[in-house]
Amino acid sequence: MKKLLYKTRMFLAVTMVLVVILTSCVGLVSAAGFKDGIGCVTCSNEIAPSYSELYAAVHAAVMDWDWHLAILNEQYGVDWNMTDTVEDQTDSMIRFLAMNNQEAEQYSDDLFENAHTIVSDQLIAMMFCFSSNTLVSSDSSTWDRVEMIFLVDNLEKQDYLHDYFDLKQIVNHEIGHALGLADRTDDQGVIMYYNKETCTAEVATASDLQNVYFLYSNVG
Fold first, then answer.
1. Helix and strand numbers, DSSP H then E, in the chain
2. How many Cβ atoms sit within 10 Å of the Cβ of residue 102?
3. Contacting residues for 33 by C-beta, under 8 A, at least 6 apart
4. Domains of the chain
């Protein structure tokens, strides 16, 4: 009887560990990432100065991620960092841009050979991933460059465009996508939670960072 009880407890303990591990990895199933790893993620902030809060939020979010990657450096001995000071913007791994809906539709139509893209009123950012200058899918491919376009019309409609703290949370989330993390639905306390209105994280959390490490620990 004691042996049976012991085995039952061990089974439950192992099961709980597996549940924790699987839960912490939610968001990695369909995502890929930078094909050469993230030794140094170079970013260029090409937001027009007239969108002052968005420009400042991008800069702050890049610094947030740089600080969090430093934590991974300390924990795992990896050498990852992020910077938004690049001399040649065309060579940056993540380019941040801002466009109104009409500009964004034209831009995406050009990328997809005049496919007549319709920009949804709820969409606040568009991410285009490139591998050797070829547009690739973020669901199944790796990439070497990302263009992150913030839709200023929709940000304004949803009262985000002039709110620095809302914008910083949004940009932190979008950087996670650029790194390869997918949306999560299981934990509203992580930055990659899919619903901004109920997300309680303002920056990447330990769980988000663990997923970044799992995604890139064997890359590069």
1. 6, 8
2. 10
3. 142, 143, 179, 180, 215, 216, 219
4. 37-216 (3.40.390.10)
Q: 25-54 as b/e, with b when 16 or more CB fall inside 10 Å?
A: ebbbeebbbbeebbeebbbbbbbeeebebb
pTM score > 0.90 for this model?
no
Handedness of CA 69, 73, 75, 77 (dihedral sign): positive
119-157 pLDDT per residue, tens: 888 899 999 999 998 999 888 889 999 999 999 999 999
Buried b (16+ CB within 10 A) or exposed e, 157-170: ebebbebeebbbbb
> Measured between alpha carbons, how far is 69 from 21 in angstroms, rounded to an integer?
21
